[in-house]
Amino acid sequence: MRILVTGATGFVGKHLAAGLQNTTHTLIVLVRDETKFQPLPGKNDSIVVISTGESNWKTLVREADPEMVIHLAAFLSSGDNETAIESLIDANLLFSTHLLDSLRETSVKYFINTGTFAEYLNNDGILKPAYLYAATKSAFRSILSYYQSILNFRTINVIPYTIYGDLSVQKKVIDYIYESTVSDTPLLMSPGEQVLDFIHIEDVVSFYQTVIDNIGHFKEDYIEIHLGTGIGTTPKKIGRLVEKKTMRKTNISWGSLPYRKRDTMFSVAKETFPGFLNWKPSINIEEGLNKYISLLKSKNNGV
User: Fold this and answer.
1) CB 180 within 8 A of CB 251
2) In terms of DSSP H, where are the helices of 9-110?
3) Given 62, 220, 257, 288, which residue has the most CB atoms within 10 angstroms?
4) In the prediction, which pLDDT does 299 show?
């Protein structure tokens, strides 16, 4: 199958693209800067790299003729200032709409979209975006539905929860907690009692690969899957686990910052995986933190 992955240099995208290079699928990656995409050695012949910096990138997508799209590219920000507004609309609505338009006259059959748990402020299945980033994700649903109706593809809307397991350009709460163990400056944090669903990047990649392997079983025009472990953990508990596993004290001033307005205080996935996938997450938070810490130590000379 010809699979187009957007955001292939991002946190999830780079891991998924690496995994797909070890399959028989033809990988097409759509990135802003093609120099940042590093194919695995010996796999270059089966990869099509398209840069959105090229004025004809939509034509190049049509020529690549994807059968499946995994849309991971996005701009993530918890802010709603002038700069954030421009970037959020540009990446999450304007670019994403152009992506859909580029699929005209292609063989696309499946569009795997990426939402966010923050679309559901109260974790009750009712759309109520926690902040503007989440609102752009919800707004894109209508545009996606329109293109689905005219291009006749099936949509799988994936709602990932709190992904961790490797360093990201955009630091995550676990990154800050871990870094505090070697910092002389206290990390200012909220009280840290939010209940979040932490899912390891290896489980995330495994999920996408399982979806691809079972794609023929998806018969509905639209399905939404919440990608998490179903188990909640607070940042404070993460801090205690990091201390236990590193044998170092975290340097965190819990409660020195207030919770954000409309903070998601309880965000845990309900198990909604289709039975035919025969998939569930396999890495619990303790094992995941062991993997994460070992990886960071290997990158940082044992620190």
Assistant:
1) yes
2) 11-20, 57-64, 82-89, 96-101
3) 288
4) 77
Name the residue type at position 191. Answer: P
In angstroms, the CA 60 to CA 71 distance is 17
Dist CA 219 CA 203 (whole Å): 24
Task: Examine the pLDDT at 41 and tell me if it is beyond 80.
Answer: no
Beta-carbon contacts of 243 under 8 Å, excluding residues fewer than 6 positions away, are 181, 249, 250
Q: Where are the domains of the chain?
A: 1-160, 165-198+229-303
CATH of domain 1-160: 3.40.50.720
In this structure, what DSSP letter does residue 79 have? -
pLDDT band at 164 (very low <50, low <70, confident <90, very high): very high
pLDDT of 42 > 70? The answer is no
At 36 the pLDDT is 85
pLDDT at 256: 97
Q: What is the rounded distance in angstroms from the CA atom of residue 303 to the CA atom of residue 301?
A: 6
Report, in angstroms and rounded to the nearest whole number, the Rg of the chain calculated over CA atoms: 20
The per-residue pLDDT for range 217-229, each reduced to its tens digit, is 999 999 999 999 9
Q: How far apart are CA 151 and CA 107, in angstroms?
A: 9
- Asked if the model's pLDDT at residue 167 lies above 90, the reply is no
User: What burial letters (b/e) apply to 15-32, b meaning 16+ CB within 10 Å?
Assistant: bbbbbbbeeebbbbbbbb
Q: Which two tokens stand for residue 111?
A: 């569009």
Label residue 181 exposed, middle or buried (CB < 10 Å: 0-12, 13-18, 19+): buried
User: If you ran DSSP here, which 8-state letter would residue 217 be given?
Assistant: G
Q: Which residues of 271-295 are buried (b: 16+ CB within 10 A; e: fewer)?
A: eebeeeeebebebebeebbebbbee
* pLDDT tens-place string over residues 120-129: 999 999 999 9
CATH no., domain 165-198+229-303 = 3.90.25.10
